[in-house]
Amino acid sequence: MTQLYDVAAIGNAIVDVIAPAPEAFLVSEGLSKGAMMLIDEAQGVDLYSRMAPGVETSGGSAGNTVAGVASFGGKAAYLGKVAKDQLGEVFAHDMRAQGVRFDVAPLAAGPATARCLINVTPDGQRTMCTYLGASTELTADDVDPAIVEASKIVYLEGYLFDPSEARRAFAKAAGLARANGRKIALTLSDAFVVERHREALMGFIETQVDIVFANEAEICALFETTDFYAAVDALAARIPLAAVTRGAQGSVVAAGKARHEIWAAAVDKVVDTTGAGDQYAAGFLFGLAHERSLPVCGELGALAAAEVISHYGPRPQVSLKDLAASRGL
Hints:
alpha/beta, UDP-N-acetylmuramoyl-L-alanine:D-glutamate ligase, 9-stranded mixed beta sheet, 5-stranded mixed beta sheet, 22% strand, globular
């Protein structure tokens, strides 16, 4: 089959509500700085009532990544579930406006479209409270085989290990990709996901995955160690390719015994780290789909991450294609 897409992603379709917050607000609300916690709809309404004025923007980890791929000029598709409501319409419009194929039927009855309440402290760190809503209603029937089979890389969001129905959709996408010789990429998503599903994640990684994206906390949680490089070595021994981010310390790309240390791209001011890892994955996957060298893939990832942390919101506000061209990438 002719390959139509560079990347097809499957993940939780979420609308982000992002607001500034002092450190004291996190303490008063009992929130763990830099972490993500799941909440129900009532908790979300309650927390939102005390948050500072914020901005609404379409998000969701894998959705952010394919939006970034499209901004680089790549061809991308997205599989995720929203409700037939206002936020669902906003999410669908945003994806399509960014050039991403998104045609999963909305949920007609049931939970509302998912939203993530993100409080950003003055240092740019984000603390997330997520109501998964309709995103958990994604089923295997929503996974279009034609899209998966026509994609060079299928990108899977680790958050989908939580809801059982979504995990079955996740498994179907992985199975279709494997059967058709497509590359399977997985992002670990969050250390709490790793801690909740370590055994299942490890089994999936060892049997199905070609590429893993993680940050330092996630990879150390996966191998239950505080030794970053030991964790990188352990992961590299299990899969062909790993890309692990370390914030201002850059990233490490591991392939077999090869290690590529990638510098973080310069940023005048860190405003909001929401989406940094997602955009790193976007740049890396775009480069990989276009057969760029691994160091260049890492540099494209670093460039996209730097752009997104310079403003509020998890998606690029400028053309990443033009930005990369201006840097000779």
